[in-house]
Amino acid sequence: MSKEEEARQAIEMLRHNEVANRVSAANRLDSVAFVLGQERTRKELLPYVTDGVDDEDEVLLAMAKSLGRMIEAVGGPKYAHLLLQPLELLLTVEENSVREAASQSAQSISEQLPPETFLTNYADMLGRLAQKEWFTARISAAGLIAVAYPRFSNPTLQRDHLIYFTRLCKDDTPMVRRVSAQYLGTMVKNVWKVLGRTALDENGVVVTSLVPLFEEFASTDQPDSVRLQTTANCVAFGEVMSEIASQHGVLKSSEIALLQRILPLVVATIDDRSWRVRWTAAAKFAHVITAYDQLPDAMDSLVPAYEKLLQDPEAEVRTAATFNLAYVAKCKARVPMPPVNRPPQDGDNDGYMAGPRVTVAERLVKRVTGLTEDDSEHVRAALALVATELAPILGKDATITYLVPPVLLLLRDAASEVRLNLISSLSALNEVIGVDLLSQSLLPAILDLAQDGKWRIRIAIIKHIPLLAKQLGRDFFTEKLSSMCVGWLGDDIATIRQAAAINLGELTALFGTQWATQFLLPSIVDIRTHESYLRRLTALQACAVMATKMDADAARLHVLPLVLEMASDIVPNIRFNVAKELQKMTPVCGVHAYESQVLPVLNLLMDDDDRDVRYYAEKTVSVLDEVFEEEA
Q: What is the mean pLDDT of the chain?
């Protein structure tokens, strides 16, 4: 079939009764265009596609994606505006995924349009979309206008499209307002980039047109879906103000006044009636802190607001806020210390200002103990993951005084997930104070997790054992935990046994060959004679893993004989696994051990009655011969 016929067939498939065929053809539009050539694509294919936008959503989605890849197919940027006609129709369809794909394609095309084409064809399309009667077109216009604003070099176009955007923000349809709210922060950033600092003056565009929209979107009269965007929008505004402060050193009085209008909107989300709005604020509070950290007095209101999130009635909100604890604590500002044993109250900011100023970490660490007693296991589990990250911020003395007591409480928590999370995050604490203060409390927590009824908990603690061993030190680990690590080889769950074998290899690499032969191998020797072949198989795997972490002499003298003896096991599964493991460990032992000890055993296995044993023995011999030939 020629390329011409293939292209014609694809065009015919666009008319096919089967949706799958039409989707396939729509996905190949860019390929078809290259076959047809640029002129025929412009004169034949694009009009055909434009007439065919009344189709199933799957077809339209494929079409929207393909159009974004067809700039070169229509003749490059000079003719790229021709692609906007079908895309404009796709930007009005009801299916959200189609509109999103069409928006992405339109944006990618707009980036390659020549300036004069952008200011005419593309700008005109955005104006039409913003004024269409059907709300889906206005939804598309909101995002596209906000993103395109920096390229409107004509003041008239800047004014007109800003008016379009503000109208969309006040649209009667909640879905249009929701999408407009999503892009309000982007619009503020882009307006500032285009107009500069003057946009934030008392009579500037941001103050007169956009900040009132911030306040309107944060109003309780708006639906939840609109108020959800308040936090993200305020973050974008804070980033603009921080950039101005970074560039110019200080903020003007008008900018400070503007900041004082925005901060209450962030704080208001903390008390919103909708838990979803409060959850969004809690989840994004790290971004809030990053955006406002360098701005004057911002933390005086934001940190008390964050503390209220930590005490929210909804566990989901408290959990999201807790995850951000370390990020908030890294804030460089100093804030007033609240009165002792008094939580933040509405309208009580003046009382909070009365205390001495301390770092944010010093203030928040006082909340950690309260969180250890939270009713929700999820909150305590989140705290266990992040609490130790406060240690490098606080320093050694404050960590010992304020952070170690709640950490010890978490180590004794009834929920295994909490204890596991804390153990997995101890490295930050260890770097500041060492693990000696916690070692005696760690031990019962580790032992409890090692015997937990949930196998996923047991495997998680196994994976953390090498890190714990490094922190606890060889002597303490040997005395208290080495026997437990070997004991996992007898677990009822196969995945646990495999993880335990790998764990022994990592401990061998950490503490050395002599330690492994003295404290691990004797117990493994006993498991080799266990009545269950599964236990014997685990012992075999552990020996092989450990051998790869040992020096050659120790592997050859202490481990290789144990593995070779198991070649005579009555169970074929053991015998062919001996062949497989020898393939891994023999290169460590050296060519002499291979020729004198390993090869005779493999020759016996190649004559075994079981075909699987013979197969793996032959495969191992072949691989090892190649390995030692290359070394020679």
A: 89
Q: Is the dihedral of CA 275, 280, 282, 288 positive or negative?
A: negative
CA separation for the pair 436, 476 (Å, rounded): 10
Q: Among the residues of 356-488, which ranges form H helices? A: 360-372, 377-386, 391-394, 396-398, 404-411, 416-424, 427-433, 436-450, 455-472, 474-480, 482-487
Residue closest to 69 by CA, chosen among 40, 113, 13, 109:
109
CA–CA gap between residue 501 and residue 512 (Å, rounded): 16
SS (H, E, C) 64-83: HHHHCCCCHHHCCHHHHHHH
Residues 6+ apart with CB under 8 A from 467: 426, 427
Instruction: Dihedral sign for Cα 624, 625, 627, 631, please.
Output: positive
Q: Is the dihedral of CA 132, 137, 143, 145 positive or negative?
A: negative
Task: Give dist(CA 463, CA 23) in Å, integer.
Answer: 46
Complete DSSP assignment for 225-259: HHHTTHHHHHHHHHHHHHHHHHHHSS--HHHHHHH
pLDDT tens per residue, range 240-291: 999 999 988 889 888 999 999 999 999 999 999 999 999 999 999 999 999 9
CA-closest candidate to residue 365, choices 347, 378, 352, 383: 383
Q: What is the CA radius of gyration of the chain?
A: 34
Is residue 323 pLDDT above 90, yes or no?
yes
- ∠ CA 560-564-569, nearest 5°, is 145
Neighbouring C-beta atoms of residue 71, cutoff 10 Å:
21
pLDDT digits (tens, 9 = 90+) for 475-503: 888 988 888 999 999 999 999 999 999 99
Q: Kindly report the number of other CB atoms within 10 A of residue 510's CB atom.
A: 17
Question: Could you tell me the two tokens for 417?
Answer: 């997930």
Q: Which residues contact 15 (CB under 8 A, 6 or more apart)?
A: 22
Residue 352's pLDDT is 47
**Which residues, 6+ apart, have CB-to-CB distance to 542 below 8 Å?**
489, 500, 501, 504, 505, 524
Distance of alpha carbon 491 from alpha carbon 369, whole angstroms: 36
To the nearest whole percent, how much of the chain has pLDDT over 90?
Answer: 64
Q: What is the mean pLDDT of residues 425-452?
A: 82
Tokens of 494: 């196969």
Residue carrying the six token digits 């110019």: 248
Residue 532 CB-density burial (10 A; 0-12 exposed, 13-18 middle, 19+ buried): exposed
Q: Which candidate, 366, 374, 295, places its Cα nearest to that of 331? A: 295
Element (H, E) at 194: helix 184-195
**Segments in 512-571 forming alpha helices (H):** 513-519, 521-527, 533-548, 552-554, 560-565
For 357, the enclosing helix (H) or strand (E) is strand 357-359
Collapse the DSSP code of 353 into the 3-class scheme (helix H, G, I; strand E, B; otherwise coil) and give the result. helix
Q: Do the Cβ atoms of 205 and 159 come closer than 8 Å?
A: no
Average pLDDT value for residue range 5-18: 72
Q: CB under 8 Å to 470, separation ≥6 — which residues?
A: 510
- The model's pLDDT over 507-534, given as tens digits with 9 standing for 90+, comes to 999 999 999 999 999 989 888 888 999 9
Identity of the amino acid at 296: P
